[in-house]
Structures are given as structure tokens and as C-alpha cells.
Amino acid sequence: MHRHGFTTARDVLDTWIESVNTRQLDRVLSLYSTDHILLATFSPHVIRDDAATQQYFVQLASREGLNVRLHERTLTEQVLSDHSSVLSGIYTFSFEIDGEPLSFASRFSFVVDLAESQPIRHHHSSQIPRTLN
């Protein structure tokens, strides 16, 4: 086991989801490495530093009814090495805007390095686009 307590990449993902859902922002932020890249669902910017990552999650956590739900059947892990993996799949963000409950199905990928105390190296998340047909 590594010093942060994660034994699998899935542990990191589960902790991220639980921490977002319970608005434990310090815990969310502690998962991202100091040189991470975050391509966030609700931001047009590439986020590369702790301050911008914190600002993004503070804004997200301010949404009433915030919840992230993993679509279990979509989760795939690609093992890169003994301690690094890419997790990808689909999760749905739900929250209220002007009192209206909305949901945003999004595809994601996390590059996780379990040898690091802050294991998320790269996180990409984008809303699933509508199809043309």
C-alpha cells in the first residue's frame, strides 16, 4: 500500500467521486499532482495549477444538489505500469440551475500514478455531445 492509502486506481476514482459529492474540496484538491492538467467539464480553459483547480471546484461545489454518478458498465482501466493506469468511462453530473434540476452525462479519463502522494496527473472530462442524426 502506498502512503496515501490507495491500492488501486479505482480507489482514487471512488475517493474523487465521494469527495465531490460531499463537497470535501480539500480532499478533492489533494488528489491532483502539483503538475496536473485538468480539462474540466464546465470550463473552456486548460487548468494547470492548484489555484485554478481550486477555483473550478469551489464554483462547481456551489451548485445546489451537486452529485456525480459513475456509470459502472462504462469504466475501463488501461494499466500502464505497476503503479500507473488510465481510467475512462462515463459519469453524470447533476445539479440545479435556477431551481431546475439538470443532468450532464460526461465522458472522462484520469491518468493515475499510485506511486505519488497526489495520484491524479491528468483529468479530462467533457459533456457527451448530441449526435447529428
Provide structural commentary.
- The structure is a single chain.
- The chain has 133 residues and is of the alpha+beta class.
- It has helices spanning 9-21, 25-30, 50-61, and strands at 32-39, 46-47, 67-70, 76-79, 84-97, 100-113, 120-127.
- The chain has a single domain, classed as Nuclear Transport Factor 2, Chain: A (Roll).
- It is 23% helix and 41% strand.
- β1 (32-39) and β2 (46-47) form a beta hairpin.
- It is globular, with a radius of gyration of 15 Å.
- Kindly report how far apart the N and C termini lie: 48 Å
Query: What series of H and E elements makes up the topology?
Result: HHEEHEEEEE
Number of strands: 7
**Distinct helical segment count:** 3
**Major β-sheet profile:** 7 strands, mixed
What is the general shape?
A: globular
What's the overall average pLDDT, rounded?
Answer: 94
Q: Which structural category do the helix and sheet elements fall into?
A: alpha+beta
Low-confidence stretches at least 5 residues in length (pLDDT < 50)? none
The CATH topology label is Nuclear Transport Factor 2, Chain: A
Question: Summed up, what is this model?
Answer:
The chain has 133 residues and is α+β, with helices and mostly antiparallel strands.
